[in-house]
Amino acid sequence: MEPSTSSRFTAMSSEKSLAEDDTISVEVEKCNELDNNAVVSEEASEQEMFIPSSSVCPKTPDAKALNRIRDRYGKQYCSTPLTTPRLTPRLGLIAEEDRLSITISDVDSTKEEVTISEDSPKSKNSVFKVVLAATTLIFMMGFLCGFYLSSSKAEAGIELSDGDTPPSVEPELLDQSYTLDEVMKWAVGNVSDTRLIRNYRSFGNQLCITGSQCDLNLANHIAELWKTSGISDIIQESVQVVVSVPDIRKTSSLKMVDSSDGSIILQHHLYGHDTSESSEVEGSTVFDELVNETVTVAGVTTVEAAEITDPLQWPLSDFVPFSHSGNVQGELVYAHFGTLEDFNTLIKMKIDTKGKIALIKNGLNPIYNKIINAQEHGVVGLLLYDDPLVNENLPRIPSSFDVTGIMGDPFTPSLPANGVYQLLSDNTSLPKIPVHIIQSEVAHELLGNLAGKEAPESWQGGFNLTYHVGKKKKSKSIVELEIHNSQEVTLISNVIGTVKGKLYPDEIVLIGSHRTSFPDDIQAAESSVSMATELASVIGQLLQNGWQPERTIMLCSWAAHEYGFSGSVEWMEKHKNGLLQDVVAYVDIDAKPSLRNNIHVVSSPFLRNLVRKSAQKLGIRVNSQEELLTLDGDHAPFAHHLGIPSLSMSAVLPLDKHTGGPSGTVPSLSVATQFLAQLTMLLSSYDVLPLDLNTFVDEVVGYYRILETQYGDRLQQQGVSLEFLKESINKMSEVISSLEQPTKPTELQIMQVNRKFRKLQRIFIDENNSNFIRNMLLGRKSDYSTFPRLEELLDSPDFLIMQIKQHLAKLYLAFESATEVLSWKP
């Protein structure tokens, strides 16, 4: 007999997990929700929710159980139980007018809403009994609070407006037989604002550098919270990775000097020990402390930062992770956005970039592309800045992925960081030159002192000056850039909580959140962990009341988010084979600044309809994008590398109207967590995986049409026909349109259908591709017009026809294989 998923992953982990029969002491909180508009203090206590009385319930198979609850608690919750059998969607063939909804289209079902009335005779009698029983002041306060909150929302059913919270369903109902619809109502209704705010505040200001003791303590704290919530199977997997931190023992600085007399034109201290009394401090972050002052790091006050022997405990300054350390000097050259076209323009202008320091705008292309292009053209140092005309709102400290383009530990590409294999520094793709992001004011000074030929009109920017590119001949002004970073091998810890499925334990739904160590991401990380912890609370309450998911749920807290998403990537690389077989969907929890009060979701085409219908059922606005998932997130290891259907959902961080950045206030996370809870219940509880094949086909057909329209003639000139690809796509589309769902599928039929779906997802993985992105339907960007990798090859200046033919052959084989998998019958 095949071992269960739970035991498989436990065996892989480095720490012992709790046994299923271990007893966990859980403090059950009394209140299930607070009004989203209520002001909650630090000491806000939760009050028990009482459902108002209603008229006598109709006789149903569960009437005795419901009456026992009413007699015991003196409360009413009357709802005609759903009489439908276990529901399954059609096999992905959902037309626009009948696409998958929470109650599932294409199956006859009775949808009943909870109705609550307050004026029946039995209701008055029940309230009278409760009042008599309320002999203490605390009990009376709980009753009044609960009655008010419940009755104020009684008419709303479960339809929500933005920021609203549905009424809670009493947990005791789940001791009896229940339907998926009832479980979803219960899960959504028991998302607690109080717990969310308390967790958000407890994670607030936890700016722990990745791998520090503070970071490990935070992982332990999250694990303990999840255990207390009722998820007993918690493990912490640790791995050693390489991170980069600013070396504050040394001075990092920027100067411009007059080479004729050595006089200083401008000078800025960037970070580290400052030995110059006259230098200006370029960095303005609150985390940049001078070494001889008393500082507080990770909650521990030290006398002198210079005495801290662990670099991971140093104050965090504005820096560029994995920038090369060293002192470089050279003339300044302005290179616009640093694209290959920009450097070619400088060559045409007879501006030599070799041995020079380049000043380049942020935006348009990734930082790692700017670095690569600069290195290839002989640049010895790179200064990046935000131009007033470029509205990028970039972070003060970029992630290591922004800088290197590398996912995971840069010294162990495509392999887990287990200490067995590691590249030498010279063989990595890390920057070979010093790089720093300077403030706009400093860039203004440098541009004001830059002479030579005037830059092209399209290169001009938002400063009130004329931009120049530098001199053809030697300039008097020399720029000196000195950067000191430290690379450290450190231990990071992922937290994994597992709830085993009862019917399909080897099918896993992964839910991921992340922790942070950079100041620009702290609100997003606090929100991410808070929502995951509240989801753990909701799941724990369900477990305590007799519920168990059909599929296994794994709740994850990833470490090292800013360091190439090393927590999720290294975990994926370690468990790759098991994940390929067992994971059916991945949901990533994040938060982002927005002026619109909605939830931002980007997903695989297989999950887009599920997202839309989930939002409609809750009555909330979800900004569900048709764009593709990019590499920027913890979903990438699962979506881009393993081909697992994934979605990235971001809650709203309110923007400050004056600064345009996050306001620093506690964001409203309640609706986002309700949406997350509902998605989790749906993905883990449907018999047939709720994957939308129609949207998938629409996207593929759209890709082909663009390919034929924009590139068909050029390919034909090279002797390449697209007819074979068109034929394979049409065959797959016809098979999908002919699929039929049995009225009452057997367990064997359900397993066969799900097996087909799981195979289909993996078919589009290019097993022979050594790059991180192996999913042929995804790429680095979000706005491809046709098949991503093929578009990159077709738009390349080299136009390598043999590589193009090879990729077309891989796509053809994938669509043929998809047709074969979907057509197979036992």
Short description:
Helix content is 34%, strand content 16%.
Structural class: alpha/beta
Largest sheet: 8 strands, mixed
- Low-pLDDT parts are 1-176, 277-307
Spatial sequence of strands, sheet with the most strands:
1-15-17-16-18-21-19-20
Mean pLDDT score, rounded? 76
Number of helices: 22
Distance between the termini: 22 Å
Radius of gyration from the alpha-carbon trace, in angstroms? 29 Å
As a percent range, the share of helical residues equals 25-40%
Beta-strand content: 15-25%
Number of strands: 21
Written description of the protein model:
The protein is built from 22 helices and 21 strands. The model is unreliable at 1-176 and 277-307 (pLDDT under 50). The relative contact order is 0.11. It starts with a helix and ends with a helix. The radius of gyration is 29 Å and the shape is globular. A hairpin with a 5-residue loop joins strand 2 and strand 3 (264-271). The strands form five sheets. Strands 1-15-17-16-18-21-19-20 form an eight-stranded mixed β-sheet, sandwiched between helices. The chain is of the alpha/beta class and 826 residues long. The longest helix has 25 residues, at 693-717.
